[in-house]
Amino acid sequence: MAANAGGLNELTVTEAARAIRDGTVTSEKLTEACLARIDERDDAIGAFAHIDHEYALKQATVADQIRGTGNGIGPLHGVPIAVKDIIDVAGYPNENGCPIFSGNRPQRDATCVAALRSAGAIIIGKTVTTELALLTPSTTKNPLNTSHTPGGSSAGSAAAVADLMVPGAVGTQTAGSVLRPASYVGIYGFKPTSGLVSRTGVLQQSHTLDTVGYFGHSIEDLALLTDCMAGYDATDPASYFASGPNVVELAASKPPLTPSFAFVKTPAWDQADPEMREAFTELAGELGAQCDEIELNGLARVIEWQRLVQLAENASYYGPLQDRARNLLSDELNVRLDEGVKVPVRAYIEAIASRERAYEAIAEIFEHYSVILTPAAPGPAPHLDEGITGSPIFNGLWTYLGMPAVSVPIMEVNGLPVGVQLVGPRRDDGRLLRTAKWLVEHLAQQPATA
Amino acid sequence: MAANAGGLNELTVTEAARAIRDGTVTSEKLTEACLARIDERDDAIGAFAHIDHEYALKQATVADQIRGTGNGIGPLHGVPIAVKDIIDVAGYPNENGCPIFSGNRPQRDATCVAALRSAGAIIIGKTVTTELALLTPSTTKNPLNTSHTPGGSSAGSAAAVADLMVPGAVGTQTAGSVLRPASYVGIYGFKPTSGLVSRTGVLQQSHTLDTVGYFGHSIEDLALLTDCMAGYDATDPASYFASGPNVVELAASKPPLTPSFAFVKTPAWDQADPEMREAFTELAGELGAQCDEIELNGLARVIEWQRLVQLAENASYYGPLQDRARNLLSDELNVRLDEGVKVPVRAYIEAIASRERAYEAIAEIFEHYSVILTPAAPGPAPHLDEGITGSPIFNGLWTYLGMPAVSVPIMEVNGLPVGVQLVGPRRDDGRLLRTAKWLVEHLAQQPATA
Q1: Are B56 and B181 part of one and the same domain?
Q2: Could you tell me which residue ranges the Amidase domain spans (chains A, B) (predicted)?
């Protein structure tokens, strides 16, 4: 993946940043290569909602001028990054996958976009989201097989990275909108600990669950994006002080002990693809004594709490749109919002109030295991004919619990990728990525990998 | 009030702590004086739910022994403090004003009780709360006129301090349960910034609104209790890092500029007692150019949001009690909980999500004024025949906004006290108390005070 043999557009985020820093590549050349790839491929894929060559190249030119001065540069200097079309970029369209927002151009960058710019990144364009980042499919195709969905809701961000149009891209996850598409298109996807990356300037569908996440070609890419985007933001109530998480260094280090894996099937296991279940059982076998199958109590309730919270908060945040222009929302979304207003307030508050206790109970597992190992999705990407973006059933519970989760592309089922999801304790994003890196390298050394 | 001429039970918290520190009084003598006053008066007042002479005196004896060693002692060393009967004291009854909790004896101190003990305080006993700290009146009488209510829900804590049974007492406020009783019984009451004092170990009726507060005989008392009880507690999601608020020092200092007052009538003004309104207008007049009447927009919505949040969260937290033993709750409470489950989830979430924006808009006033000046209650304490504890309409909005609020006993209407409420910006508790102290001293110097 993304070896140096190909075009510049095939560089990983980490490789691109290093090449620009070393002076072997200019931001302009790199951005041109990405734009050329987008021009060539995006009619077939539909990853981008808005692209403006001039806007992108102007940033690249400035980046090269700054690099030319010999002054210090940021860790993402000159690297093009794509941003989901629900995240504000100043003066650029942000249409949220919904005609109600047609022509919407925010005045200010979202905090996470400003953080990317501070790190030197080029915002290359906005990627397609499903309608209001929910379940109605977008027209984006899976680059690995265009008759399949790339998943949702961060469909365009996942597809753009998988199709080598851009080294890295930002998405969001409220149930499974980063991990699931990463799994379907065979790339790395990461949802950091809730509160590590600010959500200010991002379309809000659920203040409890919304989380910024991102896609790249390696664990290093995810770590680098984390270090660049993490930061306290007083305008996001979920934000917490995390002074210099320094995830790149931690993720690159060698684990002091061989990591151990708690293989958690979750109550969704029986709904999962039989061949994927088999592949997981093989993977657990390959890990041998380092992996135990663990049954965590209460996960069915956690899945239900996530569902209730999202349903009710969706109805609250999107209800005003529905009140104003019901006809501009899909039938599917109208049904969902109508259902959301009926969530009993007592059940909603119980779901909110149960989160910390549920996390505490589940986090005890990390006294015995490095990470939880579980599917990133119920199987490979569904066919477009099914008219769905796949189920977030393996993701929503960890999102609700605020735990960091990474999808690692190390499995294939029926010719399509399936991600392995690793979940760690809150605020320990660096160690989770270190374990993920260990797993990738360990399996690469094995004689036969599923 | 509480001059040194009377018995030891008449000492303020600050005076008592100083006397014990100086060795002029022992904790045992002080505790005995308080117990004697309780024995003499509490049949008529009904401030205490649980009192155990031996338990109290044992702590006093230990305190005197520690004082005798010459080692360092805490800022509340040997001072008796009473605690509302919804706050856990290890091994002591905590019955929440409700027969469902009859015989309940928690194993651990609430965090705020542990903080009091760390400061050296004696827990003298538990004070009467209204049923589950809500609106159904307790049997406690107002010590200033026993045919009137002391207010609620912290009825016993307010009455015990007002009747000189104990120098200070801890209560809680979800709408107006500290400020209103303080107003009715003519003492100082303080609800600090939400999150400054931990609520872990306190009966939960609303995770959004519940706040610990306390009563004393002076601003110094409130400042001292704040310094002793403030602290970060990871088990309370509202808790925030506040390293050494040092409120005592700040509250005792002279304001660098003469304070200015924003007199805010609120939409509840028209419901207030006419004579109190007149007294307030006089007070504003006395403050002259330092006081402007200000109309804050949107307060009616804030009042409604507080009401909705409390109603829905009450139904969620007390619903399980109702499910289990409806017949052990008052009719009034059953009606309230039945109403609470009907709050539309969208309205509830809107009320939750509006809080920060509402605070930001209101906090702009502090760019121009030191504090908000507003009534602590709609008038003097209602007569017992009315069967109510009075309305928290002047308090709930500030509780919802998480702002610190203090009630200062400087007015009288129809022979009963009425508190003046001062409200400050969040996390600026010390300056609020400093302004309150300035106001008290300023009015004491005036030729005629209302």
Answers
A1: yes
A2: 30-433
- Considering the domain architecture, whether residues B186 and B268 belong to the same structural domain is answered as no
ipTM of the complex: 0.85
* B349 touching A (Cβ < 8 Å): yes
Do residues B250 and B224 touch, judged by C-beta distance below 8 A?
A: no
Are A344 and B344 a contacting pair at CB < 8 A?
no
| Average pLDDT of chain A to the nearest whole number | 96
Using an 8 Å CB-CB cutoff, list chain A residues near B207: 353
Q: Do residue B235 and residue B165 come from a single domain?
A: yes
Domain assignment present for residue B17? The answer is: yes
How confident is the model at residue B241, as a pLDDT? 80
CA dist., res. B79 & res. A391, Å (int): 61
What is the number of CB-based contacts under 8 A between chain A and chain B?
Answer: 57
Q: Nearest CB to B356: which of A237, A316, A344?
A: A237
A285 lies within 8 A of chain B by CB: no
End residue of a domain, out of A338, A353, A368: A353
pLDDT in tens, A50-99: 999 999 999 999 999 999 998 999 999 999 999 999 999 999 999 999 99
Interchain contact B316–A (C-beta under 8 A): yes
**B399 in a domain, yes or no?**
yes
Beta-bridged to residue A214, according to DSSP, are: A170, A190
- Residue to substitute from A316, A354, A356, interface B, most B β-carbons within 10 A: A316
Q: Do A346 and B207 touch (CB under 8 A)?
A: no
Alpha carbon of residue B317 to chain centroid: 22
**With an 8 Å Cβ cutoff, is B195 touching chain A?**
no
Same domain, B197 and B279: no
For residues B324 and B343, membership in a common domain is answered with: yes
Q: What total of structural domains would you count in chain B?
A: 3
Residues B24 and B162 in one domain: yes
| A336 and A314 Cβ atoms separated by less than 8 Å | yes
Give the 3-state secondary structure of A326-394: HHHCCHHHHHHHHHHCCCCHHHHHHHHHCHHHHHHHHHHHHHCCCEEEEECCCCCCCEHHHCCCCCCCC
Residues A136 and A246 both lie in one domain: yes
Domain range for residue A316? 300-353
Q: Do residues A85 and A168 make contact, with C-beta atoms less than 8 angstroms apart?
A: no
Residues A294-322 have pLDDT tens digits of 999 999 999 999 999 999 999 999 999 99
